[in-house]
Model the fold of this input.
Amino acid sequence: MGRVAQRRLPPPGAQGDTDTLTAVATKKQFYGTISLDPVKAKIHFPTIMDEVVQQFTAKLGVNVRISAEIEANSQEGFNESMRRTVKENCNILKFSSAEFEEES
Done:
């Protein structure tokens, strides 16, 4: 169990400070997911960076990892030219994985 921060809370119905201590668990991890419109993602990423990620990166000792997952499917399938271009781009951009699959 992690460290616990102490916070003074007044008893129900009371006003002002009291000596009553209530244990509050310290939150040490954050996870967040968001689905983005593929056309507007380029606009939303800077906002996400400014409003969320920067809150963490501005504080010393906070480790931040960002991952992006892209999923695309097509009823007609992807032609060889598109597959080659996407795979080459992913290699250049150092994607850890990038695969095309047949639909199961």
